Each structure stands twice: as C-alpha cells, then as structure tokens.
Amino acid sequence: MKQHPLPGLTANDNSLSLPDTFTEWFAAKGWQPRAHQLELLSKIQNHKSSLLIAPTGAGKTLAGFLPSLIEIASRPRRKPGEAHRGVHTLYISPLKALAVDIERNLSTPVVEMGLGTKIETRTGDTPPHKRQRQKLAPPDILLTTPEQLSLLIAAKDCERFFDGLEIVIFDELHSLVTSKRGHLLSLALARLRTFRPNLRTIGLSATVATPSELCQWLIAQGPDGEVHEADLIEVSGGAKPDITILKSDTRIPWAGHSARYAMGNVYRAIKAHKTTLLFVNTRSQAELLFQELWRINDDELPIALHHGSLDVSQRRKVEQAMSNNELRAVIATSTLDLGLDWGDVDLVVHVGAPKGASRLAQRIGRSNHRMDEPSKALLVPANIFEVLECQAALDANYLGSQDTPPLINGGLDVLAQHILGSACAKPFDEDELYAEIITAAPYASLSRANFEKALDFVATGGYALRTYDQYAKLLKTEDNTWRVTHPRVAQQYRLNAGTIVEFPKLDVRMTRQRFGTGGKSKGPMRGGMMLGRIEEGFLEALAPGDTFRFAGKVLRFEGIRENICYVSNAQDSDPKIPSYAGGKFPLSTFLAEQVRAMLANPESWQRLPEQVREWLTIQKIKSTLPKQDELLIETFPRADKYYMMIYPFEGRMAHQTLGMLLTRRLERAHARPLGFVATDYALGIWGLRDFDRMFKIGELSLSALFDEDMLGDDLDAWLDESFMLKRTFRQCATIAGLIEQRFPGKEKSGRQMTVSSDLIYDVLRSHQPDHILLMATKEDAARGLLDVERLGKLLSRIQSRIVHKALERISPLAVPVMMEIGKEGIAGEAQDALLSEAAEELLR
Amino acid sequence: MTADLLEQREPNCALQIAGEAFICDPFGCLYWPEENCLIISDLHLEKGSSFASRGRLIPPYDTAATLNMLEQRLEYWRPKTVISLGDSFHDKNAAERIPQQYHLQLSAMMKGRNWIWIQGNHDPLAPANLEGQDATELAIGPIIFRHEPHSGPSNGEIAGHLHPAAKIKRRGSSVRRRCFIGDGTRLIMPSFGSFTGGLNIRDRAFNGMFLESDQYAWVMGQNNVFQIHARQLVR
C-alpha cells in the first residue's frame, strides 16, 4: 500500500475519529491521512453510507478499509471458548485477483499496527475445507466476489453468518454495476440490508459520468419511487497524464489489428523505461503482441503475458513477478484493468484503439500510481482509422470527459435466479420479497406484475399451458410462504448460482501424442501442462493439425477428449487460424462523436500524422467528408460487384444490426445484395446490381432505405430468425436456471438427456411469445448484441442528412473497410449456402 | 446471403435403399412412393413434461410443435401408411400425459391410415390410449424397419435411434444439421421430435455401419435437403 506525504493536508479537523494506534502508524510511515480518507471515516462513523470517487493512486483502498479496521480494533478481543463472531466487513471485488491483491496489501498495516484483524478471501479458487472453516469461524473481514456472495445468501444458515455484519465495501463499483453481475449483486445487497437494517455501504469508484446512479445503487430506494442517494466524496484531479500517440516512420496499415508495424518502436519504449504495462483489447491481440515482441527481443528482456484465459497458476506467477519488480513488461487485457497495484510501472502502452475515453483514463492510471505525478502513456493505433480514434480519446482525456455507459434496469433472468436462491435459504413471503427487491436500485421500477411473472416462472415454468403444476419447484404453503418442494431443487440451484458468465470453455493441455486424421488417437490420451481455457466455439471449428496462438505459443490442435483440448507445440511460427472471439469492446458513443467532429474539421487534422492527413485529404478530393451530423454513403463498382459504403461511426454491433436490416430491404427491392461487412466505423454492402443506377432510376430511395420504420416490423421479423437472439436466449435461460450450464464434452453421450436451448427457443417463440424469458432475451439483445438503441438514435439523427457520393472507383475511406471483408465469420442464412456448396462438389 | 444460389432448388431429394426408390424431405420425413408410405422416427413426444417431472421445467409445447409439423407433412405427402420408427414417446407414461387437445389432434391424423408404432428403447410398450398397430420390426418387400440399427452389413435396413447429425467445415465456419445417413443398403433417419438433438455421424456409435465410399448424408437445410458425401463430414 503506497501512500506519499502530501503537503498542506492535515488531520486536525477530524483527528478525534482516528485512534492513537492509527495516528502513530501514519506518523511512523512519514504519512498523513488524506482529507478524503478522514472524511469517509467520519461519514461511516456517523452511519452514512458513502461513495468515494477518486483517481488511481489517491489511497482509495486504505480509505475504504480504515473505518472497518478501526471498528474491529476497538472491539474487545474474543476470549477462548466464546462463540465466534460473524463477519464484520464484507469486501466485494469484481476480480478474484483483486481480492487476493487486497489481502496481501491489507496485511501490511494490520501486522505493523499489531491489530490481529483476521482477513480472508473466499473465491471460486478457495478449497472446500477452507470454506467450511470460514462458516464455523468467520474472519473479521471477508474478501469475496459477487458470485460467492450469492451462494452465501442462498445457504440455510446465512443469517447467522452475517449477524455481525456492519460494513460492505464495493471496490471498482463503476465496473460492477453495468453488468448482470451487478444486478445480482444489488439483490444480494438488498438481502443483506434485510438481515442488518443499519448496514453501512462504501462504494469505491473511478470517475464516472453520473455519480448519482452509483449513490442510489449503494442504499435502499423508497417503495413509491422516491430516490435515495448515499453521500458522495469526490477527489478531483491528479496530475494531467502525459499521453502521446506513437509516431512511426513505417506505414500505418489501413486495416487489421496487429500493430505489427510499430513493434520496433514499442520495443525501444520498453527498453527506455523501468516497467511497462501494455494493454490490448482482445486476447488474440495480446498473444500476437507477445509473440512479436519476443521475436525482436534481442536483449532477452523479461516480458510476460497475462490474460483471463491463462491458467491461474501462470497468472499468479506473473502477478508475483510483477510485484517483485522482476519484469520489464507485461502484456494484458482487461484482467489487469481494475485497481491492481503492482510494482513500479512507469509507462503504459495502449496497443489498438481504446474504444472509450473512460477506459483509456483507467488504464493510463496504471502507470505511476501517485496522483501527484503525471502518468505516462503511449497510444499505438493499429490501423489508420484507429489513429483518428486515438487522437479523439487523447483530446477527451485532457478534457476529463467521461463516457461510462448509463446504468440499465435489472434483468428478469437474474431476478428469477435470485428468487430461487431466496427460497433455498428459507421460505419467503412474496409481499416481503417484492418489497425487498424494489429497494435495489436496478429493480426500483420493477412492476409487481413482472415480479409475479418471474415468481411463476421459478415455481412452475411460467407457461400458459398449465400442465406443470404437479412438478412445481416452489409451492405456496398454508402460512402463505413459498418454499422449495424438494431438496434437489436447492442442489440444482447451487450448481447454477451466480451463473452470469457465458460461453462454455475447455481446458487446454499440452500433449506429446499426435492424433490421427479424424481426431482419433491410438491409446489413451495423456495430458501434460495445463495452459488455460478457451471458448468451445473457437475450438470446435478447428481440425487436427490446425495451428493457433495461445499462452504465448503457436500450438497445434490435436483433438478434444471429454472436456479437455489437447495441443502440442507447433513447428511453424505463423498460425493458420488467425484469432478467436471474445473481449471486443464497441466504440463508445462519445468517442464516435469526437471522431466525426474531427473528420468534419480539417483544421483539427494538424495533430494527426502526415500519412493520415494525406489519406483524409485525398478522400476529400476523390469523394467527400461528411459534416458532423451527416451520414456519408458511397457507391462504386469493383470487380464484378457493386458496393455501398456507409459511414455511421456507431460501433460494430449497431452496424451489424444495420447491415442485417439493410440487406433485407435491398433484397426486397431486388438489388440482390450478397453480403456485408461491419467495422466499428463503417458498414459495407455488396451485391449484383448497380446500387447507384437503382437510385438514379428511382428503384431505390435513400430516405426510404434508411427510414426509421426499419426498427419496427423489419427488426421483429429479423429478430425472429436471428442466430444472435438464440445465443442471448441461451444465456438468459442459463442464468434463469431453465437449462443447465453446459459442460463441454459431456453432451455427446447424453443426447436424450439434454435439450438444446435453440430448440427450446424455437418452440417457445411459436407457442408463447410473451414468455418472461423471451422478454428478457429481447431486452438484452436490444441493448447489447444488437445495440438497437444506438441504431435508433443514429437513424433519427441522420434523417434528411444523408450525403450520397456516386464514385467510379473505391474511395480512400472505403479501403480499410474492404480489407476487413472475408475476415468475418458467417451465420444464419449463409450456412445453407455453405451446405449447398458442399453438395455442389458432388457434381464436379 | 447468397440467396440466389438456393432459390430454384427442389426441396426434396431422392435416394435408394436396396434398390427401392425413396424421397427425403428437409423436415426429416422419408417417403416411399411405391407403397405410398411415410416414415418418421424418434418423435419423443412429451419430452418436455418428462424433463419437468425431474425438475427441469422446459416448455411443455414440444408435443404441440412436433404434431403440428407432422400434420403439415401428412398434408403434403398424403400417405396411406405411416411408420413411426420407435421412440415415438419419450418414456413409458408419455402417451398418457399427452394433453387432451393434442391427443385428439394425433388421433385425427391417424384416422383412415395404416399407422405402425415400431417399438423403441424409450417406448417398449405400445401406447394403450392410441390406435395403430405395434411391432418390434416390420418387413415390407426388401426393406426391414426397426428402431435400433443392427451392426455389420445390411441389405435394406431403415432405422432410427441414433439421431444422426452432420457437420461440415468450410472457410473457417462450421455448420451442423440433422441428417439422413446411408450407403444404399442401410439408412438411419434423423429424429423428428422438436426437442431432439443430434449425434455427430463421426461418433463411434456409427462405426462399421456403412461402406465409407458409398456413404452419403442427406443434410436438412432450412428449406432444402443437401446430399453430401461422408468424406466431407467432420467431427
């Protein structure tokens, strides 16, 4: 725990609340408690839940734990033979690694002050015997994750476990609240408040766009819609970060995400600093960057790799080496994004576009963890569009802009999971449970009708055809409470509890054996070192012999046995399979606006590298650049096809949805579209007829094509057959406990034992379209995967502001988009075309 | 998106077993014109309620969905004889659990037709509350109908039980669909039930069943059946 003396801050005003042991400890360290640390202490001592917003390096963690450490130290010691006290403080972190890190950091003051405070972690990695012991002899401070809390409150004896609970600390609250994990956590907090009405909460957060939302999240909301907010302590500023965009003499590529062109510059930057943290957006980028840096690592600098798919033991090794200052560089994805504080990082390199100004600010905060010294950061755009984005993010960070996403209402699938968990702990009265749930901010506007739908779903499936009453999981008994009908129900719940995370993953292990063709091995497989876990979907598309990049190596795929994927070292240095999915962030609305503004204003180009300025200048000559609120559309022929390029700058997901809808319309207009490609910046559609000519002779009209009614019937019709909706449904159905979490490798033997969620979706959609899980699915899809909300805003923004340029040939702006064609996977209707191709081969 | 590739295709596909001509459709039915006979397999009716009784409350509409599809197919092919190749009911009490409206619907479909319930491992006993004739095996001409395929060489066997599914990989994507699988001497039917999954034909359960060089899958696309040689199919 680092803390440095700050001039001009004294503890005099609040010194009453800080016991001598603590004052002396601060003094012995040559520190003074900071104003916000004392302010939070005084608020908590006065029973006021609070949100502390502070930049990294402001001593946020110590501030959060100070009230607990003082209160626990002031309790009389437990005498031998006396009953164990319950947990005093619960600390919830979004990351396991963060909880482990905090345990390590907290032990310093506790040991040095001789407090004897018992601090333990409880995560998915905690062994069963330790969990058991924790229940019998709870620690004073329990550090855990949202999933573990959900499991704890669904246990029968949980009320006793929490009967001494005074304070709950939520670390990195800004990142917790925006997801379904946050919804589940808010319901768990509501339960804790029922156990302990005087419970105080502390939220620790980085700067966010709307702090009031987090303040509401922390405390109970009123039953009739009155809004309550926790107190807010905001620490401003910190030193202005020193950010530069990498200047390279090498040509910046027009497409791709590897940033290979800049490796020499990046390597020189690493050499010139003590410790460098390199951030990328996806795991495949991390793997690639690692490989590329080692390829030129002539000085054999210790450079390590850290991402969520790697095996725990490997990650811990890197973390340990990091805190011992043994590494010169670590390449990381979001696992290291949040509040971790290791070693003396003096440079942050961000490879690829940051996608959001707030995310960039967070990541830059990793370097030089002292808020009074500027952080140093280097942005490395991977392609020419990303240069624009990096410049926009850079401008934004200086202005202190915030683009954290707004909070959304709690999901119904999560609610269903919570209702079942409640019944597993003990029978509940539905009025009381409803009253408790709507105190949680994400569920404050939950209607009684939807609550009852969710309850009915949990009890009997919520089907209009009421044939399952005899198989009910919950029954209303004579004393008017709902209870589980069978112990098996609680067992099932525990297997599923906290399920928020999506794609099934397989263990990846090394092997020396080679599989033959068809993935058959001779004799049993023997597994070697465990490398980590990869999504099943990616592995399924591999054939034995395919090579791919993982855990810093190029691996040869050998085959899958049960739920283990076997790989061996590949001889080639370039893998055949380029990447795997996961971890793609969409471009934030705010940054998109900045980029559009930059395009519209040539004067702002001065800050851009020369090759980018040139690119834009030629675009202006050959085609045009749209004004900030305009939508540019270009049409041109190329090879034997016709192209339509659309530049909304609204993020990949919104573009993908737009692409699906536009191709439907074009098909109806007999424009014979063949396919489309969506990037974060643009959408390209190609087809067999000349779009431009169709506009000229009036067969197509721009305003009709982009009419807002697209989001009506067309969207509904498309949603009905969309594979994306099926994927969302699978998540909702798993979270809600309708289907079991899939354990990869197991389903093959049990085809009669399971029913795929796709089949359930089809049947449910045609027989009960208003079922609660379909409601939940549509809500999710509209916001997440399909980004319908953003698309709607785009369509209303551009009405009558569409600029169409008919071109003879491809424009500079279109080139990077065209280069993405073929990199995208296919799905839906196109699958039949593949089958057809395979069938055609018979004829040849 | 390559819609025009698919437009003009005949939805059904012809095939031969032991010299007899059959037609398979993209919904998993096999039609025998010579006998005016329709063959379906693995309906698994009331699978939903079977799961529900064991604590998984999946939708109770699977029987309705399966019967609606079957009704539509009967309307299309208008067969005189229907052979249901076993596992027509998901468990031995399933026929009794069918809600009355669907029971009536099924009875109406059966009316005026020869309806044969071949016994399967899920439904070893004929449904007591339904008409139709039951059999462990049935031979018509050179063809023998049974639920579980025998192993080893065959001459004219049509069976179900295995729920075959085919998977192809092309251009970095994979497509997996239910299929008919056969080599001219034996055919295994896809499962027809709305809640039935598939087993990859590369699974060892299919080992030794077909002559590899003559083995084809008739893969069920959205609107067409695609005949694909087995060498193109992957795990």
Spell out the key features of this protein:
A: 844 residues, alpha/beta, Rossmann fold, seven-stranded parallel β-sheet, six-stranded parallel β-sheet, 32 helices, 15% strand, disordered N terminus, B: 235 residues, Purple Acid Phosphatase, chain A, domain 2, 5 helices, 18% helix, 31% strand, globular
Helix content of chain B: 10-25%
Class inferred from helices and paired strands of chain A: alpha/beta
> Which spans of chain A have pLDDT < 50 for at least 5 consecutive residues?
1-15, 517-524, 743-752, 824-828
Q: Give, in spatial order, the strands making up the sheet with the most strands of chain A.
A: 3-4-2-5-6-1-7
Alpha-beta classification of chain B: alpha/beta
Biggest interface pair, counts: A-B, 62 and 58 residues
Helix count from the secondary structure assignment of chain A: 32
The description of the largest β-sheet of chain A is: 7 strands, parallel
The CATH topology annotation of the largest domain in chain A reads as: Rossmann fold
The first-level CATH class of chain B is given as Alpha Beta
Residue-averaged pLDDT of chain A, rounded? 82
Overall pLDDT level of chain B = 91
Termini separation of chain A: 70 Å
Tell me the CATH architecture of chain B. 4-Layer Sandwich
Q: In the CATH hierarchy, what is the architecture of the largest domain in chain A at level 2?
A: 3-Layer(aba) Sandwich
Percentage of residues assigned to helices of chain A: 25-40%
Oligomeric category: heterodimer
Query: What is the gyration radius of chain B calculated from CA atoms?
Result: 17 Å
Shape of chain A: globular
